[in-house]
Amino acid sequence: MSNLGFGLIGSGFMGRAHAIALRVVGTVFDDITAPRCVSLADRDAKSADAAARELGFERATADWRQLLDDPAIDVIDICTPNYLHYEMSRAALQAGKHVYCEKPLTLDVAEAEVLAGLAQASGKVHAVGLNYTTNPLIVTAREMLKAGEIGEPVSFSGRYFEDYMASPEVPFSWRCERKYAGAGALADLGSHLINMVHYLLGRPSRLLGDIRTVIRTRVEARTGKRRAVENEDIARAFLELESGIPATLEISRVATGKKCGLTFDIVGTRGALSFDQERMNELRVYSAGQRTGRAGFTTVLAGPEHGDYARFCPAPGHGLGINDLKIIEVHRLIRAIDGAAPFDPDFTEGLRVQRVMRAIEQSAADRQWVALNW
Predict the structure, then answer these.
(1) Shortest CA distance to 254 belongs to which of 170, 187, 183, 178?
(2) Residue 314: burial class (beta carbons within 10 Å; 0-12, 13-18, 19+)
(3) Where does the pLDDT of residue 2 fall: very low under 50, low under 70, confident under 90, or very high at 90 and above?
């Protein structure tokens, strides 16, 4: 087992979540050697020094490229705004490092194709931080689908609603600008929902998409000027999966009242599954053939019989949190580097997600169905 050294780029919300996972994973999982938090890179020396001290890294730098030449670093961990993912991931792969990059993988399909190709040729482990599928109950849902416990799947209906940009008073930021964010709600939220469909039921063969920008201008805090929002607040799509199953997706960053509203319903010929990320320790299951007047969904509470949950708590119903999913993700990454099992979702899945996002935007522009040729 490897005593892997990590170099983290970025110490914001996701950087902090990754740092917590790196510091804790060796305590939660005893089948790995705890990783070393070697160096943290941030936008300037002051920020980097402060974050390194707070998050437990040995040293800090304002130049992320120093991590590439550091022989103590085995993994480059990228938690930066979207537009930096391509350059940093490419440089890390070329430097012979394993790469752990937050979603979305890149700004567009062309960049994702380059990274997926480089990653496959490198022989290194490459991971995308689409962590919701690490939830032990989502793993259970997939096992139930594969085992035919709800019969043949008939349909998938998924949503990812949040309200972090619901107010017109939220200022203009890099998330509103194509050259920095790429797509809007699609990239930030939709990437997770698309990956969820792929994980549970497979890829789409064609789709019909629609996108809308609800709040068209926002005030830039730095200048006080009003600027046009360049990407979408809402995205919707009808999908036909390769299996023939119909699916619907709805994504919004302006859904007032929703905080982490990733939900889905899967209907089968003998039952149904329902999940809501805001209640991430519950999976609702319906089984056909129940007594008249007694039929209804059963709520399955997460417990130690659900895979990785047992590593955190020996009792059911106590629940995991979002940072626990990151710990599971880091564990899988380290295991993959140790050769135990391939990591999924990797850069190839990151490319697949990017292709679906592009198809939704293309369909919205052309007002017609778009085929996905995998």
Answers:
(1) 170
(2) exposed
(3) confident
What's the CA gap between 80 and 90, in Å, rounded? Answer: 14
Give the DSSP H/E element, type plus range, for residue 371: strand 370-371
Give the per-residue pLDDT at 48: 98
Q: How far apart are CA 126 and CA 349, in angstroms?
A: 10
CATH number, domain 133-316+345-366, options 1.10.150.130, 3.30.360.10, 3.40.470.10, 3.40.50.2300: 3.30.360.10
Q: How far apart are CA 247 and CA 239, in angstroms?
A: 5
- In which element (H, E) is residue 94 found? helix 85-94
Residues 73, 77, 79, 83, Cα dihedral to 10°: 90
Q: Which tokens sit at 234?
A: 């809402």
Calculate ∠ Cα 129-135-137, nearest 5°: 155
Cα–Cα dist 145/138, whole Å:
11
Q: Count CA atoms within 13 Å of residue 166 on its CB side.
A: 12
Question: In the prediction, which pLDDT does 1 show?
Answer: 56
What 8-state DSSP symbol labels residue 231? S
Residue ranges per structural domain of the chain: 5-131, 133-316+345-366
Its CATH class, for the domain covering 5-131, is: alpha beta
Q: What is the pLDDT of residues 302-319, one digit of tens each?
A: 999 999 999 999 999 999
Query: Whole-angstrom Cα distance, residue 186 to residue 364?
Result: 13
Residue 153 has pLDDT above 80, yes or no: yes
pLDDT in tens, 22-53: 999 999 999 999 999 999 999 999 999 999 99
Mean pLDDT of 201-214: 98
Residue 26 C-alpha from the chain's centroid: 22
